[in-house]
Amino acid sequence: MPILYLAMALILAACSQPGGDRADSGSVRPPTKQATLPSGGSQETVRMQLYTPPPEFPLQFTTYLPEEWEATASQDGRAQAIHVTQRTPDPAGDRAFLHFVVAAPDQYEGGARETVRAVAESYGVPGNRTEVQPIQQHTWPVVEFGFTSRGTIREPVTGWVALGCQAGRWFHIIVQSPVGPEGEAFRTRAEQVLTEWRWADGSRLDGAGGAAGQGCRQ
After folding, report:
1. Interval 144-164: pLDDT, tens
2. Domains of the chain (ranges plus CATH)?
3. Of 106, 186, 194, 216, which sits 20 to 30 A from 166 (CA to CA)?
4. What does pTM read for this prediction?
């Protein structure tokens, strides 16, 4: 009997350890789910599908994308990226998207910060004036910038770019969308994608912690 009690105690202790519940990890998440999101003063139910990047992508994660969205992985110089947009994009151009970029493994914080600032200044509508300012919209970034592009060329767009660190690699996320109701719907869905984001160890995007703690080059 003492052996049985000891075994039960060990099992209970293991189950109570932080991180013992891996229900959020990509290996056990259901392939689809539904999310209730605000929409024009009311609410709507959005069907979402599980997304996992290609196995060779440097930072593994899972999240849920609205079923009308698609993701494409690509090489971006020495960095690697995943571009997420609606499956039927605006024929006038890719104005609404979520872009996730993982920097090269030898990237330092100074260079990563400069890249994010330059990205914020370069996005928007070519030929329009882009205004950039520091913001604190999310809890996980090391630094974050908001931008708005206004002018006489097409409708204005708005968005943000944020720098983070995970498992020794610097990364940044960009979200851009048109100003107005169309863009608001996209932004709401993009925030849900980030809420559903789980790294390979099951941790959330907003629980990544500081750059030093994640092993990124300072």
Report:
1. 999 998 876 667 889 999 999
2. 23-207 (3.40.1000.10)
3. 186
4. 0.82
